[in-house]
Design goal:
Length: 216
């Protein structure tokens, strides 16, 4: 049943009232990497200080915590905004309306199995939909949803799309580099770093899925 598949993720996302948000922008990308490499990148910020200076200015890369053992086929965690920052944007300021009733300092980063990434911010919700095209190629649809102003104006999430297009591009380059490394005959897997606990959750879920075992 779908309700069982979603599990406690519904309670986590419900305060953002996604059914009342409106689509404001959408980008699509093709990345020369396996979809699981893209998902692994999403679930850790171990790499953030090295390639995401803009992100680190508005959100400490070591902030927050991951969720473990929650009911449902999903994984992920949360991070926090720096003091005085309104949202994830290049200026740290928001040009949109806040989503009523949500923590204005917190951003949720979760994945609903198998291919939907949900990033819930104080003033917008962003999704990434991953579609495998080939073993080493993934199509990604990135969408931004905002509070409807109710005045008939065209919805916009330009402040968010600008920030995340830059961040996405940085991530896709990193993912493609990882994919090239994985394709090398000299590649050998290694242990996870302590900050990669959500990646371990993902790999475990993938393994259980391939074996036909319950995911969550």
């Amino acid at each position: 049943p779908f309700a069982e598949h979603v599990g406690e993720l519904e309670q986590l996302i419900a305060p953002y009232a996604p059914e009342r948000l409106v689509l404001a922008d959408r980008h699509s990308y093709e990345v020369a990497a396996n979809w699981k490499v893209v998902a692994e990148n999403y679930h850790e910020c171990y790499h953030c200080p090295l390639i995401h200076p803009e992100l680190c200015q508005v959100s400490p890369p070591s902030s927050g915590e991951n969720y473990h053992g929650r009911p449902g086929a999903w994984i992920g965690g949360a991070m926090f905004l720096r003091d005085g920052v309104q949202t994830m944007s290049l200026t740290g300021e928001s040009a949109g309306l806040p989503i009523p009733g949500v923590d204005p300092t917190r951003v949720e980063y979760v994945q609903l199995w198998p291919n939907l990434l949900i990033s819930a911010h104080p003033d917008y919700v962003m999704t990434h939909r991953l579609v495998p095209l080939e073993p080493a190629r993934t199509w990604i649809e990135c969408s931004w949803y905002v509070v409807d102003r109710g005045d008939g104006s065209t919805p916009t999430a330009a402040w968010a799309a600008e920030f995340w297009h830059l961040t996405n591009t940085q991530d896709w380059s990193a993912c493609e580099s990882v994919q090239r490394g994985l394709s090398s005959p000299h590649f050998r897997p290694g242990p996870f770093a302590p900050a990669e606990d959500a990646v371990h959750d993902l790999v475990t879920m993938v393994g259980r899925g391939y074996r036909g075992l319950p995911l969550g």
